[in-house]
């Protein structure tokens, strides 16, 4: 279902897309639901599970750097595998904090192998909850500008999955797990759909 204020989006075919997701680890309950929503929308558009690469960073402030590095790493990985250099250790190791974060890499080049192409879109997910100091304002502004800069500098769509909320309840509602009356709407699903739409349209715009 489309969120309030938006017409029903068209469905786009994501079956040959490779999508990265980078999420912050603050406010994990909200983050996990947003992440699930984004992944569900990607899968519903046909994106293969093994073409969805998830990485984590400590907090939202780290998102722009991580997205930028993840994208460049995927470009390097792609050019070295297409140059016949064989499989390098995954370039996304650069961002991995644990082995379970790593995308699975198989050594056979078949139709069923995960894509080695650069990411077609990257979704950045974070939840900033306003506190009593100015932290919120500084992190929100720096992260928003940073993510916009990364997408314009790299030419890859970066979906803005940064919730800036006044309290936890607002965040839970926007993750579809609110408690009072309505559960709210999971914005992560919109971000997954936006990633597929932008990735498909970008191919026609280049
Ligand atoms: C420091 C901080 C604070 C106060 N609040 C949040 C938050 O609500 N959400 C979030 O994702 N990150 C928060 N952080 C951490 C910063 O984003 C960052 O990780 C640290 O300042 C280290 O650079």
Give the topology.
Elements: E1 19-24, H1 28-44, E2 52-57, H2 63-82, E3 121-129, H3 135-154, E4 158-165, H4 168-174, H5 187-205
Parallel strand pairs: 1-2, 1-3, 3-4
Bound molecules: ligand DLZ.
General description of the model:
The structure is a single chain. The chain is α/β, with parallel strands linked by helices and 206 residues long. The protein has a single domain (19-103, 113-205), classed as Lumazine/riboflavin synthase (Rossmann fold, 3-Layer(aba) Sandwich). It has five helices and four strands, in the order E-H-E-H-E-H-E-H-H. The protein has a four-stranded parallel β-sheet with strand order 2-1-3-4, with helices on both faces. Strand 1 (19-24), helix 1 and strand 2 (52-57) form a beta-alpha-beta unit. Helix 1 (28-44) packs across helix 5 (187-205) and helix 2 (63-82) packs parallel to helix 3. It starts with 18 loop residues before the first strand and ends with a helix. Residues 24, 26-27, 58-62, 126-129, 131, 135, 139 line the site of ligand DLZ.
What can be said about this structure in brief?
This protein has 206 residues and is α/β, with parallel strands linked by helices. The chain is built from five helices and four strands, in the order βαβαβαβαα.
